């Protein structure tokens, strides 16, 4: 591994203006991502997990400069990319690609598959028309589509096949970093593993680095090298995948793991499982954001927010991170 | 709230200013400026004379300078003289304005009185026989060329039946209510038919949208009788967009008035503007057009305020 | 996971077709328009077959009632009304269509820019659109129609051309006819630009122009079709009233509007002359409105059944 990380995010914040209710209410701010920092080394797969609405998508889009962050720093291969205009970002757009959750929404319904896959090449002026078509066919075959599919339209494909199209498009520019935002969440379980296998194969054959987002821990377990757990716009625990699953230290992580369905026993409802919904990011709780749902919450938790601490291998944001067994 | 009002005022002022310049400029492009007219009236005028006259009237100056001169005079209350009426412009304008206000006032009341209930009736049961019929009639009204309808009304009621005058207004001091009113019947009927279809469609669309809202469905499901639901909840919500659309339609209504007044020789603002343009009476045409624009902008502004007042959700950005 | 939403284009087309077929009036409108258009298109052929000429003056045969020789009678100069109506229809429909296409192009461009860029540009363009809608347009158009083209500095070859009144009316009407399209396109563009494929195109570096033309515009076909259909009717009405007032298409070129110009003076002598041209305008416009309404319903993305 080289020393400069591919992606290094520091104190990243993203707030959305939200219009208040009532005629005289002013604007208020929704902090979707709050002071998030992480680094991603070459060839590594970092998984970002957390309940829906905790800010994973926002974080991914801010890091990829698709929604400019409110504050903080994003460095790509060592150079700062926040504040760059569309033109200066264009070289970066070649190296970083996104895969979206909804394979029904991420493909333009009016373009045939061949054109969809070749579009990034066209945008970057790579090759002539024939070369681009050839390349698109090769890409399609790599992701398990047929050459005959090139003139068909997205609506003629199943969800899994559409996700393959999206993946072919994402690797067309030979990126080094792929940000996959819940790429399998919308798919049937049987299809999920096929797509995960495809992503894994591509990672190996093309030495890809992944920022992989999921709300489903099971998907992440055997796919990621490292996992970051998000809660209400912040990272609350990050560790190597094995460590995190074997010895989680944040009560939220433990609850997430406990909530995993175990084969043969169905969904567990034992103590330690999450109850209720996460609080609204518009009106976050005082102190530790997790305290209203935390079984270990004490007075201290309501008053002060624990920082993300620990050695670079395992960091936790909890006042009582050293208590409570696994 | 004041910020919102202020912003709208500025916007209206900008529109009025742009309009005044554009119309002034276009008037200058009309065939026959005053000098052209003099030349055609008096063949003895040489081209040097014409140039001198042009300089005298300031017609050789650049357009912006002429416009600013005109604007200065207008702001000072000098609107110029109407050639056609041989009177100062305001004196020619005011009687016509009164006539148009009467015509449009009666028409708008009638059209809303018919159109809003009809639209509601259609919306309560979409795709029913009632809805179908109302829609058909509304579309017919929208699609009728107003000038042709006016001709038809004259043919039927003046030519064949002979019961109503084909145009004009009562002679001054014409006594009796009917003497006055009979001249209004056909123009009002014409304009009402031309606008009621639109009002019906707006109301229908707004009402269907309002009835689609979740809480209305809930109220209906809970058994609040249809009449109560419709009148109690939905009507208020439906009226909000309708107020805006109806006010945005003042300009359209005035266009209708121009046609109606012209065909029925009804001496209102529409006919006055048409006659002024066709008769090269540029002072009058310019001021009258701007005045109508001003009135319409004020109407829009009032509707905006009503909208803001009716709709608790709007933020006065 | 996904609801029973229809997401195949075939399915959507089938659904749209089904909804459209429910609109019997819209189908009737389409049929009527097809008939009118083919009659207008084949006017010269019909004239030859009937042995009639739209320009042939016959002063001995003024105001003739309908007969075998003149199906709808003759006008104040003894010209055959039926053939003049067909030729007038040619002009009125052609002008209406052309002006609408020009207007739709303007409206699509404005709506697309406003909807795609949003923010201040959107606010500015929509304020502008609202202002145009609110203005008393007819008197303004009359001023425009009365402007001396020589003074505007247009080449005299154009100004003196026989068809200048056609070009002028198309330009004038297009100048104000774009608002419906602009608003509908803007609304639809606001929705489409939030779709993931637009974000994805940004993600691989596509520029604003490419996103608008390749990714957003092709997905706005339905609103553009609906708004255009609904606009043609208004455009034809505008053209006819301007021509009626003597400011639109100039005789000797006949149009449905200018065929009515003399009808008012002749109303006591020959009330029948006022009937047919107006009737044809009315039928055309109502057919277009029914068609537009049916299309709107059929292509409404929110509709479920
Ligand atoms: N464009 C936006 N405007 C306002 N709020 C937003 C916007 N996008 C996301 N949010 C809010 O930010 C929070 C995080 O959303 P998101 O990043 O989509 O979460 P996740 O991907 O983890 O489900 C949510 O509360 C969401 O409502
Ligand atoms: S800080 Fe307190 S409330 Fe927060 S996770 Fe730790 S124990 Fe629970
Ligand atoms: Mg998400």
In the CATH scheme, the class of chain A would be: Alpha Beta
Largest sheet of chain A at a glance? Answer: 7 strands, mixed
Structural class of chain A: alpha/beta
User: What is the CATH architecture term of chain C?
Assistant: Orthogonal Bundle
Radius of gyration of chain C: 23 Å
Note the run of SSEs of chain C as H and E: HHHHHHHHHHHHH
CATH class of chain C: Mainly Alpha
Can you tell me the overall shape of chain A? globular
Count of individual helical segments of chain A? 10
Helix and strand content put the structural class of chain C at mainly alpha
End-to-end gap of chain C = 21 Å
**What is the number of domains of chain A?**
1
Kindly give the count of domains of chain C: 1
Q: If you consult CATH, what is the topology of chain C?
A: MetI-like fold
> Which chains share the greatest interface?
B-C, 50 and 43 residues
SSE blueprint:
The complex is a heterotrimer of chains A (326), B (317) and C (305).
Chain A lengths: L6 E13 L7 E14 L4 E5 L6 H8 L7 E6 L2 E2 L5 H10 E4 L13 H11 L5 H14 L16 H13 L5 E5 L7 H18 L2 E6 L2 H5 L4 E6 L2 E7 H6 L4 H8 L40 H5 L10 E3 L10
Parallel strand pairs in A: 3-8, 3-9, 6-7, 7-8
Antiparallel strand pairs in A: 1-2, 1-4, 4-5, 9-10, 10-11
Chain B lengths: L1 H27 L5 H8 L5 H11 L5 H13 L5 E2 L4 E2 H36 L4 H15 L2 H15 L16 H36 L1 H8 L4 H23 L1 H14 L5 H10 L3 H29 L7
Antiparallel strand pairs in B: 1-2
Helix pairs in contact in B: 1-13, 5-6, 5-8, 6-8, 7-8, 7-11, 8-10, 8-11, 10-13, 11-12, 12-13
Chain C lengths: L8 H14 L1 H18 L1 H8 L30 H37 L1 H16 L2 H10 L9 H4 L4 H14 L1 H14 L3 H8 L4 H9 L4 H24 L30 H25 L6
Helix pairs in contact in C: 1-13, 2-4, 2-13, 3-4, 4-5, 4-8, 4-9, 4-12, 6-8, 8-12, 9-12, 10-11, 12-13
The structure holds adenosine-5'-diphosphate, iron/sulfur cluster and magnesium ion (MG).
Iron/sulfur cluster binds next to loops of chain A.
